[in-house]
Write a structure and sequence with these properties.
- The protein is an alpha/beta fold.
- It has two domains: 171 residues, Rossmann fold (3-Layer(aba) Sandwich); 205 residues, Dehydroquinate synthase-like - alpha domain (Dehydroquinate synthase-like, alpha domain, Up-down Bundle), CATH 1.20.1090.
- Helix content is 51%, strand content 11%.
- It contains 15 helices and nine strands.
- The protein has a six-stranded parallel beta sheet with strand order 1-9-6-4-2-3, sandwiched between helices.
- Strand 7 and strand 8 form a beta hairpin.
- Helix 6 packs parallel to helix 10, helix 9 packs across helix 14 and helix 10 runs antiparallel to helix 13.
- Bound molecules: nicotinamide-adenine-dinucleotide and fe (ii) ion.
């Protein structure tokens, strides 16, 4: 369906390849940068990935101004404010983020504060609060899930308020995303599975939510078929280079899709579960995705049916009667979830993910205030959110 009006914007240069990282100094130079800070976390640096990045600088006159590896899971406002001091005291002029969504969003938060010449990120929460072009930011994702390398969003935890704070602006989009196979080979199976389900959720929600459009649809469809063909392979054999690079590309495509069309109930519940109980984002996505589709099935039957083509392939699509395709799409997602559970231990219920039943009400109350619900095909109130949470509990 062609909307009467839509916008699609993705100016991020994508560089993809088994050794794409070797282009990093060139890309920084093109942006006029000389002294980047590298933002990462302990898991990523411990896996030896920062060394690969450092080696890429060997034949260049680029100087690494500082390396910061103290990023916590889900980022944190306080960490961003601490990072600002490191950036300034080392005279850096640009940012290279090497990590998953937590690192990338931390780097985006840093970019907000230094560009605005401020001290506290909290002042800039919300949509379109930023008016100035940002410092050069190059992102090297080490998970294949968030798509944050091509999104206009940063989600940063505020531990005091127990909520994940959203920041959105076109200025937040990185300049370059480098997808290098070597960066994801070390990702453990469970994180591969969880982050892959995050990417799938981005593509699926982008395809059914209210702001969908033909360009986001095209990105979402290709992303889903790449995930169908490569996620299980990457979980089974972490060194499968083709599957790894395909998953990085799928995640990037799904990110570009949802950055423009937005997401829905699955993300609203996932952000709330992350904020209240610290369940990793991808784990929450995997648990809620089938329930979110069931919630929306009456309003979105046509789109959920169309999803069967990339989810199942041409043969399954053709063999399934038209009025059963939506249910079949959800069944295939449940099958994938089960396979990932048996291969990697990816939790299938909130209980398994460590959530207490007594926390469900707080999650429901937090979820209905999440911005993702604006674009969900159906409205969601506290009781409806709670009903979905109870179904996903055990
Ligand atoms: N900005 C956006 O558009 C957007 C979209 C979705 C999610 N998010 C946010 O992203 C965050 C989650 O990011 P994530 O799922 O990528 O996980 P993450 O960044 O928290 O990483 C998870 C763990 O995996 C480790 N790790 C990452 N890459 C590795 C590798 N290659 N080898 C070994 N270990 C590795 C990390 O050290 C960390 O311990 C959440 O805060 C979520 O809200 C943001
Ligand atoms: Fe997500």
């Amino acid at each position: 369906m062609l909307p009467d009006y839509y916008e699609f914007y993705n100016p991020v240069k994508i560089v993809s390849g088994h050794k794409a990282l070797e282009n990093l100094p060139y890309e920084l130079d093109q942006l006029g940068a000389k002294r980047p800070i590298i933002v990462t976390d302990k898991g990523v640096s411990g896996a030896g990935l920062v060394d690969i990045v450092k080696n890429a600088f060997a034949d260049s006159d680029m100087i690494i101004g500082a390396i910061f590896d103290n990023t916590p899971p889900d980022s944190s406002i306080d960490t961003v404010n601490e990072l600002v001091k490191v950036y300034r005291s080392n005279d850096c002029d640009s940012i290279v983020a090497v990590g998953g969504g937590s690192v990338i969003d931390t780097a985006k938060g840093l970019n907000i504060v230094i560009t605005e010449d401020a001290d506290d990120l909290a002042k800039f929460m919300g949509a379109e609060m930023l008016k100035k072009p940002m410092k050069p930011l190059i992102v090297i994702p080490t998970t294949s899930g968030t798509g944050s390398e091509v999104t206009l969003a940063a989600v940063i935890n505020n531990p005091e308020k127990k909520m994940k704070m959203p920041f959105t602006s076109y200025h937040l989009l990185p300049k370059v995303a480098i997808l290098d196979t070597r960066m994801t080979l070390t990702m453990p199976p469970k994180i591969t599975a969880a982050t892959g389900m995050d990417a799938l959720t981005h593509a699926v929600e982008a395809f059914i939510c209210d702001q969908k459009n033909p360009v986001s649809d095209a990105h979402a469809m290709v992303a889903i078929s790449m995930i169908r063909d490569n996620l299980v392979k990457a979980v089974k054999d972490r060194k499968d280079k083709k599957a790894r690079l395909a998953m990085s590309n799928a995640s990037c495509l799904a990110g570009a899709a949802f950055s423009n069309s937005m997401v829905g109930i699955v993300h609203a519940l996932g952000h709330a579960t992350g904020g209240v109980c610290h369940v990793p984002h991808g784990v929450a996505m995997s648990i809620f995705l089938p329930f979110g589709l069931e919630y929306n099935i009456d309003a979105s039957r046509e789109y959920i049916s169309e999803l069967l083509f990339p989810l199942g392939g041409a043969e399954i699509y053709a063999a399934t009667p038209k009025d059963k395709r939506a249910e079949k799409s959800i069944e295939l997602i449940r099958n994938l979830q089960k396979e990932l559970h048996s291969l990697s231990g990816l939790p299938m219920t909130l209980k398994e993910a460590g959530v207490e039943k007594s926390q469900l009400e707080e999650i429901a109350k937090t979820a209905i205030n999440d911005g993702s619900l604006i674009y969900n095909p159906l409205d969601v109130n506290v009781d409806e959110a709670l009903a979905v949470l109870k179904k996903a509990y055990e």
